[in-house]
C-alpha cells in the first residue's frame, strides 16, 4: 500500500461533497427523491460500480430522503403484519433488531476495552521489568501470590525483577540504573515503532483520536473505511502499543472510535441499518456513548457525552438505546475486571471529608487555570499540526513518532511521576492519604495520636521532606506534560487527549491542594479557617483538588460541561462533590471561550477541512441567500434540465460537460420556473438502464419529466420518462431569505443543497460547501481551507 497516497488523503483530506452544485464522485450513491420516486433503482451498494469504496468516495447523505425511506419501509411492514402471522413475526423481529444490535455493540465493545486495558497494563510494566514465574503476568499480578511482600514495599517481590536486576544481578548501583534506563527507552521505541508502522501499512485511518471524524460522520458525511474492520483491528492493537510506549496520550478518545467501528460492522447484520445511512448514524451515536462508558466506567456520562459532544441527530429512541448499550458495555467490562479491583476504572477513589464553602475560591482558581491551559493547548497544538502539514515534517511520520517517543522516554524515566502511565499518575494524585500510606505524596510528618481524627479521615499534618521532594517532582512533571502533549496529539498513532489533559489538571490541583492544606494547618486562626478547621480536623483533601483540576483542564480543552461533571462523579462515587466540579468546569469553559469558542475537536475538524456545520456556532452576519448562492455575476449560467424538449443525447452531453452532482429541472429555458431537482447519479443509472432494457431508446429520444407524455411525431423514437427520479419538492428559499435562517435550515434538516428562487423563478443554488466558505470568509479565514475536490 502506497503510504504517500494515504498520507496525502489523511493530511490534505481531499473531500468530494455529494451535493447539488458540488463536484460529483463517480462512485457516489444514488440518492434522491424524498420518497416521491420509484421504490427500486439500481443501488451501487448492491450492484457495485468501479471506484466504489475508494477514499475519494466522500459524500453527504440526504437525511430527508433516508428518513422518508425508513418511514415507507416501516409503513410497509406494519401493513403486511396485519395480513399473516409470519409477517407479524417479521414485524416484531424488525422492532427488536435495534435492541439486539445495541446488545451486541455493548458486548463487543466491553470485551475489546477489557482486552485493551489488560494488554496495555502488561506491556507498560514490561518496560520496567519481567515476571520470572510467567512473562505474561504484569507487575501487580506477579506479586499477588508472593508471601515476601511488605506493606511499605508492596510492589517489590522476588518474582518480579527489573531489567537492571535481571541483567546485572543487583538492583542497586549506577550500572543497574543505566541498564534499566536503556531498556525503558528500548521498549518505548519498539512499541511506538510497531504502532506507527502498523498504522502506516494497514489502516491509515487508525491514527489520532477519531472523535473529530466521528462528529463529521454523524453529521451525515461518509468516510469509507474509517469505521471498517481493518481500522478496528489495527486501532485495537496499535492503541495498546501507543499507550504502553509511554507517549503522552490516552486510550479514552480512541475507544470511542473502536466502539463506533464495532457498531458499523455489526450494522451489516441487519438490513434496515445496512441500507439506511440515517438509521446507521443513530447506532453510531449510541456507540459513542458506549466508548466513553468503557473508557471511564461511566455509562450515564457516556450517554451525556454522546448527546452533548458528538451527536448531530439524537432522537429520544437513540437516548434509550444508548443507555442500554452503555449499561451492557459497562457490565461486560465489570465481568472481565481488567484492573483486579472490582471497579470499572483504575482511578476509583472515595473521599471522606466534606468540602467547605471557602474552598470554592481555589476550585474556581483551578477552573481559570483549566480554561487558560485549554485555550493555550488548542492554539499551540493546531499551530504544530498546521506546521506538520505544511512542512517536510509531515512526510516522515515514522521518524516523528520515534523522535518524540525517544525524547519522552529520555526525560520521563528519571521522574517517577512521568515514568508511570497517565492512568496510574491520576490514580496516585486522586488518592486520599491514609495513616499507613507509603506513597511519597503522603510523606507527612507523623501526627500525635491525640490529633488523629476518629473514623476514616485523617487529621491534617505538616509536610515532611518526602512530600516536598514529591512536590518538586510534580512541578517538573507538570511542565513536561504540558509541553510534550502539544506535539504528541495528532501524530500518526492512536492518541487520546482525555488522560493527558486530566493529568495536567490533576497535578496542578494536587499542588494547590497540598498548599491549601499546609496553609490551613499553620494558620488555623485566620478568619477563613475559623469555625470549620479546628485542630485535629481533616479540613482539606488534596485528592479532591486533583479531581477538580482534572475536570477543569479536560473541560478547557474539550469544552464539555454536563457530561464531564457526571463522568467525574461516576469516577469517584461522590455526589457531594458535584458543586465544586460544576464551579470549576463552568469557569474553565467561560475562560477558554473568551479566547476562542472552538474546542479541540472542532479545531481539528476545521484544520482538516471537513464539511461540518457546527451546531453550537451562531451565524452573526446580515447577508442574504442571494449573496451566497451560485452562480455569481461573473459565473456561467446555471446548468438546468427542462421538463420536456431535451433529448437523451443533450442530457448526456450536459452531464458529461459538467461536474455537478445534481441539476434543477425547469419548465423551459425562457421561464426558468422551477419544477424539481434530479441527481446526476439517478440520471446516469436511469439512462443506462433504459438503453439496456427499454426498446427504442436512442440519443434522439426525448427526455420527459412531465406527468403526461406530450404528443409525439409518428416516426419519433420512444421517449424516456424520468419523472419518477425527480424530487418534486426540493427545498427552496427566496433570494431575500437571511443567511442565518438558511444556515439553521441546513443544520436542522441536514440538507446538501437548497435552491434559490424569486417569485417561483429559479435564480441559483446554495450548497453546504458554499455556506462553509461564506462563513470562513466572514471570519477572515481562507475560504479554500474547506478542502473539497
Explained architecture:
- This protein is mainly alpha-helical and 789 residues long.
- The chain folds into three domains: 104-142 and 155-336, Orthogonal Bundle (Clc chloride channel), CATH 1.10.3080; 357-445 and 459-598, Clc chloride channel (Orthogonal Bundle), CATH 1.10.3080.10; 625-779, CBS-domain, CATH 3.10.580.
- Helices cover 53% and strands 6% of the residues.
- It has 28 helices and 13 strands.
- The strands form five sheets. Strands 5-7-8 form a three-stranded mixed sheet.
- A hairpin with a 2-residue loop joins strand 12 and strand 13 (761-767).
- Helix 14 packs parallel to helix 23 (600-607).
- The longest helix is centred in the first third of the chain and has 42 residues, at 85-126.
- The chain is elongated and about 110 Å long.
- It starts with a helix and ends in an 11-residue tail after the last helix.
- It comes from Collichthys lucidus.
- Residues 629-693, 726-783 form the CBS domain.
- One of its GO terms (molecular function) is voltage-gated chloride channel activity.
Task: List its salient traits.
3-stranded mixed sheet; mainly alpha; 28 helices; CBS_dom; CBS-domain; disordered N terminus; 3 domains; Clc chloride channel; 13 strands; voltage-gated chloride channel activity
Structural class call reads: mainly alpha
CATH architecture descriptor text of the largest domain: Orthogonal Bundle
Distance between the termini: 22 Å
The count of helical stretches stands at: 28
Largest sheet: 3 strands, mixed
How many strands in all? 13
The CATH topology of the largest domain is given as Clc chloride channel
CATH superfamily of the largest domain: Clc chloride channel
Amino acid at each position: 500500500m502506497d503510504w504517500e497516497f494515504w498520507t496525502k488523503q489523511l493530511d490534505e483530506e481531499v473531500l468530494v461533497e455529494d451535493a447539488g452544485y458540488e463536484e460529483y464522485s463517480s462512485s457516489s450513491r444514488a440518492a434522491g427523491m424524498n420518497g416521491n420516486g420509484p421504490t427500486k433503482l439500481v443501488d451501487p451498494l448492491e450492484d457495485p460500480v468501479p471506484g466504489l469504496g475508494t477514499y475519494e468516495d466522500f459524500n453527504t447523505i440526504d437525511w430527508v430522503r433516508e428518513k422518508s425511506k425508513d418511514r415507507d419501509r416501516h409503513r410497509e411492514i406494519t401493513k403486511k403484519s396485519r395480513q399473516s402471522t409470519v409477517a407479524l413475526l417479521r414485524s416484531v423481529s424488525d422492532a427488536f433488531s435495534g435492541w439486539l444490535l445495541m446488545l451486541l455493540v455493548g458486548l463487543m465493545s466491553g470485551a475489546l476495552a477489557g482486552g485493551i486495558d489488560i494488554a496495555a497494563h502488561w506491556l507498560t510494566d514490561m518496560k520496567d521489568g519481567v515476571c520470572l514465574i510467567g512473562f505474561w503476568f504484569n507487575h501487580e499480578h506477579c506479586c499477588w501470590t508472593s508471601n515476601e511482600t511488605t506493606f511499605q514495599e508492596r510492589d517489590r517481590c522476588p518474582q518480579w525483577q527489573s531489567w537492571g536486576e535481571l541483567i546485572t544481578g543487583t538492583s542497586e548501583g549506577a550500572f543497574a540504573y543505566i541498564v534499566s534506563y536503556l531498556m525503558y527507552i528500548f521498549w518505548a521505541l519498539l512499541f511506538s515503532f510497531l504502532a506507527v508502522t502498523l498504522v502506516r501499512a494497514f489502516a491509515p485511518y487508525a491514527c489520532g483520536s477519531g472523535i473529530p471524524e466521528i462528529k463529521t460522520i454523524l453529521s451525515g458525511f461518509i468516510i469509507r473505511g474509517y469505521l471498517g474492520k481493518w481500522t478496528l483491528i489495527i486501532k485495537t492493537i496499535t492503541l495498546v502499543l501507543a499507550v504502553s510506549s509511554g507517549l503522552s496520550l490516552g486510550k479514552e478518545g480512541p475507544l470511542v472510535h473502536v466502539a463506533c467501528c464495532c457498531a458499523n460492522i455489526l450494522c451489516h447484520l441487519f438490513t434496515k441499518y445496512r441500507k439506511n445511512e440515517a438509521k446507521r448514524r443513530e447506532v453510531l451515536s449510541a456507540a459513542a456513548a458506549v466508548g466513553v462508558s468503557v473508557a471511564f466506567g461511566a455509562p450515564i456520562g457516556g450517554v451525556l457525552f454522546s448527546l452533548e459532544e458528538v451527536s448531530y441527530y439524537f432522537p429520544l429512541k437513540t437516548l434509550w438505546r444508548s443507555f442500554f448499550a452503555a449499561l451492557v458495555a459497562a457490565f461486560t467490562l465489570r465481568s472481565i475486571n481488567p484492573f483486579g479491583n472490582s471497579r470499572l476504572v483504575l482511578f476509583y477513589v472515595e473521599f471522606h471529608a466534606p468540602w467547605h464553602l471557602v474552598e470554592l475560591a481555589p476550585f474556581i482558581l483551578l477552573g481559570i487555570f483549566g480554561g487558560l491551559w485549554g485555550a493555550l493547548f488548542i492554539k499551540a497544538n493546531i499551530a504544530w499540526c498546521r506546521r506538520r502539514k505544511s512542512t517536510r515534517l509531515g512526510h516522515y511520520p515514522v521518524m516523528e513518532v520515534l523522535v518524540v517517543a525517544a525524547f519522552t522516554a529520555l526525560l520521563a524515566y528519571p521522574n517517577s511521576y512521568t515514568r508511570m502511565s497517565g492512568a496510574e499518575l491520576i490514580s496516585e494524585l486522586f488518592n486520599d492519604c491514609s495513616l499507613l500510606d507509603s506513597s511519597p505524596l503522603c510523606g507527612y510528618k507523623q501526627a500525635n495520636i491525640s490529633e488523629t481524627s476518629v473514623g476514616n479521615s485523617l487529621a491534617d499534618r505538616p509536610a515532611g521532606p518526602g512530600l516536598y521532594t514529591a512536590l518538586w517532582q510534580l512541578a517538573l512533571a507538570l511542565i513536561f506534560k504540558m509541553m510534550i502533549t502539544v506535539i504528541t496529539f495528532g501524530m500518526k498513532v492512536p492518541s487520546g487527549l482525555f488522560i493527558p489533559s486530566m493529568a495536567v489538571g490533576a497535578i496542578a490541583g494536587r499542588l494547590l491542594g497540598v498548599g491549601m492544606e499546609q496553609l490551613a494547618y499553620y494558620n488555623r486562626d485566620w478568619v477563613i479557617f475559623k469555625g470549620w478547621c479546628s485542630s485535629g480536623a481533616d479540613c482539606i483533601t488534596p485528592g479532591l483538588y486533583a479531581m477538580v483540576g482534572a475536570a477543569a483542564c479536560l473541560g478547557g480543552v474539550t469544552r464539555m460541561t454536563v457530561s464531564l461533571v457526571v463522568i467525574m462523579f461516576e469516577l469517584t462515587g461522590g455526589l457531594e462533590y458535584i458543586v465544586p466540579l460544576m464551579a470549576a468546569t463552568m469557569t474553565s469553559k467561560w475562560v477558554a471561550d473568551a479566547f476562542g469558542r472552538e474546542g479541540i475537536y472542532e479545531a481539528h475538524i476545521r484544520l482538516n477541512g471537513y464539511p461540518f456545520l457546527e451546531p453550537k456556532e451562531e451565524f452573526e452576519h446580515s447577508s442574504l441567500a442571494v449573496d451566497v448562492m451560485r452562480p455569481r455575476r461573473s459565473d456561467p449560467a446555471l446548468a438546468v434540465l427542462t421538463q420536456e424538449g431535451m433529448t437523451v443525447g443533450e442530457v448526456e452531453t450536459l452531464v458529461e460537460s459538467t461536474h455537478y452532482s445534481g441539476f434543477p429541472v425547469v419548465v423551459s429555458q425562457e421561464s426558468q420556473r422551477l419544477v424539481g431537482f434530479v441527481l446526476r447519479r439517478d440520471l446516469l443509472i436511469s439512462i443506462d438502464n433504459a438503453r439496456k432494457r427499454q426498446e427504442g431508446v436512442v440519443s434522439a429520444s426525448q427526455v420527459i419529466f412531465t406527468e403526461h407524455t406530450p404528443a409525439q411525431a409518428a416516426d419519433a423514437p420512444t421517449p424516456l420518462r424520468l419523472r419518477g427520479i425527480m424530487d418534486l419538492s426540493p427545498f427552496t428559499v427566496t433570494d431575500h431569505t437571511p443567511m442565518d435562517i438558511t444556515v439553521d435550515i441546513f443544520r436542522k434538516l441536514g440538507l446538501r443543497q437548497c435552491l434559490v428562487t424569486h417569485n417561483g423563478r429559479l435564480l441559483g443554488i446554495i450548497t453546504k460547501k458554499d455556506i462553509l466558505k461564506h462563513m470562513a470568509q466572514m471570519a477572515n479565514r481562507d475560504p479554500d481551507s474547506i478542502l473539497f475536490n
